[in-house]
Amino acid sequence: MERTIKVRFSQGVIKPLEKVEFSEGEEFTVTIHEIHEKPKKKFFREALKATDYLIDTDWIIDHFRGVELITKKLENIAPQGVAISVISLAEIYEGIFTSKDTAKS
């Protein structure tokens, strides 16, 4: 049987972070993969550094509709980093899923 569980190394002992069922004295092999998690605040700071432009919903819609001027502008600024807000994403989803013609949206 092969199973992956999270463990913590504390005071010289590897301790499981979830319930494991083994018989006392049973031997098994452990493979260790280190987990390197960045703190969330640092992750978001790094993501913001890589983004110079925050695109509004109108630009996204115009791009999807094939407005050439907007598409060219987005292509030009993309190398500097382009992002959309969660609000813009929600507006796009709302527009698509509440449209009377979802195939066209």
Which word captures the global form?
elongated
Strand order of the largest sheet: 1-2
Individual helix count: 4
Per DSSP, what share of the residues sits in E-state strands of 2 or more residues?
Answer: 5-15%
Distance between the termini: 49 Å
Element pattern in H and E: EEHEHHEH
Number of strands: 4
Radius of gyration: 24 Å
Q: What's the helical proportion of residues?
A: 25-40%
- Which oligomeric state applies? single chain
Low-confidence stretches: none
Mean pLDDT, to the nearest integer, reads 82
What would you note in describing this structure?
This protein is an alpha+beta fold. 38% of the residues lie in helices and 13% in strands. It is built from four helices and four strands; from the N terminus they run ββαβααβα. It has helices spanning 40-49, 57-64, 68-77, 86-97, and strands at 7-10, 13-16, 53-55, 82-84. The strands form two sheets. A two-stranded antiparallel ribbon has the order 1-2. Strands 3-4 form a two-stranded parallel sheet. The chain starts with 6 loop residues before the first strand and ends in an 8-residue tail after the last helix.
